[in-house]
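Researcher: Let's do a round of design. I'm pasting the structure tokens now; please hold your answer until I've finished.
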């Protein structure tokens, strides 16, 4: 949707095919922290009116290790902040804008197929309400996630993939209770915890979760007890308990596919890369892909030069790998791994101590968290 809106702003026509209904997409509970790049893009597209009213700017975060705190001041270290604003709210904003600007979106498109992607005349076929349709196009953007068809359209001998599956997940809840006033990442002997939010009256909280546990065993009472225990007495004293209305499991996985281009097919977002939710990079990284590809397509279509399209994959991947590194590093410092022993625990502690004591380390953390510049 960001790519379609950016292209429309440049006077370039596009068609968006969406497998699900609009209500389904807007109702999915997903990311909630926007970095400065995403906020800037929403402003450039005129999508930020509600974001400015309802988003919650955060000038920093706190990392806890066995109850000891390290505060990272984003604003002082980088001059930028992050904004808490749910991905579902972002989707409402982009769909409303698309409707106002007469963008073509086909919801509940079925049996989508990509054809002749390495030719100069690729086309896409799909079915809607039992009828078949064909779209002749100049370029195809594969924004259909990790289980979509776009990545599979690239031959296996061309595509190289890198993957790591973590031996735990996150148990996430939503509750209509005032959230903890800070974004807190916590490493406790029982595992990781994250205090986050969606609004001044809605809490979004997470616990590291063993893959052999059952979701139904986690009652609200058990969740809040463990959440407060991991935050410790000081931060835990600010937790407001209440009934949850959303409870689910988030797997942790790192994945990258190279290249992000095959002929006239370009991959974006989860179709090309997945990061653990630690560090809030997933949606933000997808938006930066959209910015890079929109710039390249505008140069090709309006300026007649293919150089930016030729450079798209390498340019996007350079930023992808930096985000992968940051999420991998932060996950490694804040989680308890079942294979770790006393040595690894002390090394985690040394990482935390260095972060706490080094302004340089805190600046590197802040730069990555608020969003690295687009190269």
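Researcher: That's everything. Go ahead.
Model: Designed sequence:
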């Amino acid at each position: 949707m960001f790519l379609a809106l950016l292209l429309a702003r440049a006077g370039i026509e596009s068609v968006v095919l969406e497998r699900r209904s609009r209500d389904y997409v807007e109702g999915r509970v997903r990311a909630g922290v926007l970095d400065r790049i995403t906020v800037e893009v929403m402003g450039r597209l005129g999508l930020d009116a509600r974001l400015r009213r309802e988003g919650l700017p955060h000038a920093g975060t706190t990392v806890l290790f066995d109850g000891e705190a390290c505060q990272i001041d984003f604003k002082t270290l980088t001059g930028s902040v992050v904004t808490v604003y749910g991905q579902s709210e972002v989707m409402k904003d982009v769909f409303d804008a698309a409707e106002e600007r007469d963008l073509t979106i086909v919801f509940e498109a079925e049996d989508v197929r990509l054809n002749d992607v390495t030719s100069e005349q690729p086309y896409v076929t799909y079915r809607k309400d039992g009828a078949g349709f064909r779209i002749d196009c100049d370029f195809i953007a594969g924004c259909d996630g990790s289980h979509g068809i776009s990545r599979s359209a690239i031959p296996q001998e061309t595509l190289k993939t890198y993957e790591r599956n973590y031996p735990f997940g996150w148990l996430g809840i939503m509750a209509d209770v005032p959230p903890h006033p800070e974004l807190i990442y916590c490493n406790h002997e029982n595992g990781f915890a994250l205090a986050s939010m969606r609004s001044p009256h809605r809490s979004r909280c997470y616990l590291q979760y063993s893959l052999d546990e059952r979701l139904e065993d986690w009652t609200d009472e058990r969740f809040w007890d463990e959440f407060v225990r991991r935050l410790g007495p000081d931060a835990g004293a600010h937790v407001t308990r209440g009934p949850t209305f959303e409870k689910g499991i988030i797997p942790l996985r790192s994945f990258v596919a190279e290249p992000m281009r095959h002929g006239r097919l370009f991959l974006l977002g989860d179709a090309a890369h997945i990061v653990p939710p630690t560090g809030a990079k997933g949606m933000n990284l997808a938006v930066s892909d959209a910015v890079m590809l929109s710039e390249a397509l505008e140069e090709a279509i309006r300026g007649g030069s293919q150089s930016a399209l030729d450079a798209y994959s390498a340019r996007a991947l350079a930023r992808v790998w930096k985000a992968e590194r940051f999420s991998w590093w932060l996950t490694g410092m804040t989680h308890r791994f079942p294979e770790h022993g006393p040595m690894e625990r002390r090394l985690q502690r040394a990482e935390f101590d260095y972060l706490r004591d080094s302004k340089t380390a805190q600046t590197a953390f802040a730069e990555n968290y608020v969003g690295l510049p687009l190269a």
